[in-house]
């Protein structure tokens, strides 16, 4: 399988990986937002997703902020309706 070299495709992959993390860990996401500990609670899942992303994307794209931007856009911004002291 060839590596993804298109930035838009890499962005879609990152968002899909993070969406899966959010879907399969809904309770952790909610608790993490409420307690401001989301990155600690999902550390293993986030790292596993990052490794999958790195294995599928060309290094020159994977070394950029694509995965981290998707992490915030998908995991944090979508959780804006959850009661939290951080907003």
Main attributes of the structure:
mainly alpha; 87 residues; 6 helices; 0% strand
Oligomer: single chain
How many distinct domains? 1
What low-confidence regions span 5 or more consecutive residues with pLDDT below 50? none
Q: What is the string of SSEs from the N terminus onward?
A: HHHHHH
* Rg, nearest Å: 13 Å
Number of strands: 0
- Kindly state the mean pLDDT as a whole number? 90
User: What is the share of helical residues?
Assistant: over 70%
Distance between the termini: 42 Å
Percent of residues in beta strands: under 5%
| Largest β-sheet summary | none
Count of helical regions: 6
| Protein structure class | mainly alpha
Q: Based on CA inertia axes, which overall geometry fits?
A: elongated
Write a short abstract of this structure.
The protein is mainly α. The chain is 70% helix and 0% strand. The mean pLDDT is 90.
Could you outline the blueprint of secondary structure elements for this entry?
Elements: H1 7-24, H2 26-35, H3 38-41, H4 43-56, H5 59-62, H6 66-76
Helix pairs in contact: 1-4, 1-6
Could you explain how this protein is built, in words?
α1 (7-24) packs antiparallel against α4 and α1 runs parallel beside α6. This protein has helices at 7-24, 26-35, 38-41, 43-56, 59-62, 66-76. It has one domain (7-79). It is mainly α. The model has no long low-confidence stretch (mean pLDDT 90).
């Amino acid at each position: 399988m060839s590596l993804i070299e298109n930035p838009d495709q890499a962005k879609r992959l990152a968002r899909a990986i993070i969406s899966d993390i959010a879907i399969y860990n809904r309770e952790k996401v909610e608790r993490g937002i409420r307690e401001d500990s989301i990155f600690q609670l999902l550390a293993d899942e986030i790292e596993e997703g990052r490794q999958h992303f790195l294995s599928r994307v060309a290094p020159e794209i994977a070394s950029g902020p694509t995965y981290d931007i998707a992490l915030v856009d998908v995991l944090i911004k979508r959780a804006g309706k959850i009661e939290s002291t951080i907003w």
